[in-house]
Amino acid sequence: MVGSRKVKTQTFADRKAKSFSRSWSDPTPVKPDSLHDSRDSGDLQASSGNLDEEECDDVDWEEERESERAACEGDDFIPPKIMLISSKVPKAEYVPDIIRRDDPSIIPILYDHEHATFDDILEEIEKKLTAYRKGCKIWNMLIFCQGGPGHLYLLKNKVATFAKVEKEEDMIQFWKRLGRFMSLLNPEPNLIHIMGCYVLGNANGEKLFQNLKRLMKPHAIEFKSPLELSAQGKEMIEMYFDFRLYRLWKSRQHSKLLDYDDLL
């Protein structure tokens, strides 16, 4: 798990192997043990690559676009879909097991809500994208976290509101840097789905999304936070998840009586 500071007796990979085997090969399997080891050795910080490069104002966007175009050549290329999963979501450790097995472009990233930092998340996104296809960028993204009307609870003590993303420097830099991972080639606005909370429950939710889109310019971004029971919510779920397994997971999300390993 990204950002985890504790050694667990059973790793996510161990538990995943115990559950059903996926019929396709995940191009970027989650390896929490190796992440933990590299953090201890300092390699993870060294691998951050271009995260600390110059401010976005100094970037040659046309050069960035051409670099992305060269990386994505080939009829077999499928733009990656990044899925950020907060450990604060109940039964979050099972979410990578219920994603669509017929779509190898879905890349799940489970992060530790209590201990991860914004840099941890950005470094892991960069690492996963490089493993998938060096130089490629995100066209679709799902952020699965807790929150509510007008706010996102991304990390411990880091609640994103429309006011805070204007004032708190670490939050501002996170969204700017996240924008750097979004595609410049996509003819449509890159899509970021918010799941696990209904951000648009009041007017501040739309203000938050407008501020985030401004921070992520010149990349064109569209935020969506549909209710899961709506038609748009079902469409969002089916984009990333095996719908049957998602409903099963949802029905057991708050249960302590049955282990998912007995069901999947």
Automatic annotation (TrEMBL):
<feature type="compositionally biased region" description="Basic and acidic residues">
    <location>
        <begin position="33"/>
        <end position="42"/>
    </location>
</feature>
<feature type="compositionally biased region" description="Acidic residues">
    <location>
        <begin position="51"/>
        <end position="65"/>
    </location>
</feature>
<feature type="region of interest" description="Disordered">
    <location>
        <begin position="1"/>
        <end position="72"/>
    </location>
</feature>
<dbReference type="GO" id="GO:2001222">
    <property type="term" value="P:regulation of neuron migration"/>
</dbReference>
<dbReference type="GO" id="GO:0048168">
    <property type="term" value="P:regulation of neuronal synaptic plasticity"/>
</dbReference>
<protein>
    <recommendedName>
        <fullName>NMDA receptor synaptonuclear signaling and neuronal migration factor</fullName>
    </recommendedName>
</protein>
<dbReference type="InterPro" id="IPR033374">
    <property type="entry name" value="NSMF"/>
</dbReference>
